[in-house]
Fold this protein.
Amino acid sequence: MTRVEHKGPLRERQGVNKSPRPFHHLSSFHLPSSVDQWPNFPPKAEWRSREEGLGFERMIKGSLQRPHTPKMHVVAVLVTPAASVLELAIPAEVFGRFADRSAQGQEKSRPRYVVRMCAMQPGLIPVSHGVSIRVPHGLDELSSADTVFIVSGNHDYPPEPPPALVKALEQAHSRGARVVAVRSGVCILAATGLLDGRRVASNADLADNLRQHHPAVHVMPSILYTADENIVTCAGGTAVLDLCLDIVRRDHGVTVTHGAARQLLAPPHRSGDQAQAVDLPLPERTGGMSELLDWIRARLDQPLALSDLAEAANVSPRTLARRFHSALGMTPIQWITNQRIRLAQHLLETTEDPISEIARTAGLGGPGNLRQQLVRTTGLSPRDYRRRFGRSGHGIDLASEVERRRSPARPPYGVAEPGS
């Protein structure tokens, strides 16, 4: 085969100044790690031959299709003296499962968490119930963490945090880290001023002291947890498990969360606005509330009015609304809407069904309402949500990105297309 010397842009990019070389000599050619670093591909007219040009293109696409391993999400758990063993163990267990790549058998390209225990001074830290934990990291670990958990004592109001800790928390927040305060850890975070004007969840035993020390904080002693941008507060106890699963859901979608919840034998989602204490016990499964909830889930694609639910439960609408709010902390319509959104999220993550079909199956009517509800709860349109959390998500299909760059008529990423 006759070789034609190439004098176009491709030759200049490769830095070839001598005689032309066949493409198999490019085996050590450095491939950029980001799509944005790729130059425009040469037009076909500049290929030395059709066979070698196609071979070069296959080489590039093959490299781009290699699995992309995202950066590990670092969860730093700040251990303080007398901290609750339970509240320390839950984030370590939930996020540690992802570090072990054991959550629902997810593929290795999925983003993962890594947990790092830290303290003011590394070493043996006495926590609750006579237990001591050897903590390997100091406060410097907070400077690189993506999520910071502050876990403090059970019921006593903690002393003023040292200036070094306040500074480390302020710096973590200012660079965009998610800061999570649990139980009396809320009091420590309040000392930084980051909770002023915010609605925060608090354990009932600490609420009065928290209001007295920090009157600018809106203390909510009746709810499980709150999330205000990248500031998260939690009342503590088993609500920490609900909070951790909610964080996984926000980061990786409902399907991954359900897999982790199944391994933990935990419900996949309990709303942060749910009451800390329920006045009436949940009814038994046979003939009670759980049976009604299953009945509703099986009919999410159908119109459901309060009267329909009351008839199915064989109670009055008023009684049903009271029981619903007592048990779940919300109205029946709010709960149904949440279930429909979660079903739509699951379908977007696991199927290639059209968005209009998913909206119908989830009982949300049309694409417009689905988009409105999803943007309200996740900040993403259905198309962006599928791109981020779907089976082909967690990274752009780079081979498709190559084709997109060669077709300038297509809209760039970040520009919404009709129906998205």
In short: Strands lie at 73-79, 113-118, 123-126, 132-135, 147-151, 178-182, 199-201, 218-220, 225-228, 231-234. The first helix runs from residue 9 to 13. DSSP finds 16 helices and ten strands in the chain. The mean pLDDT is 75.
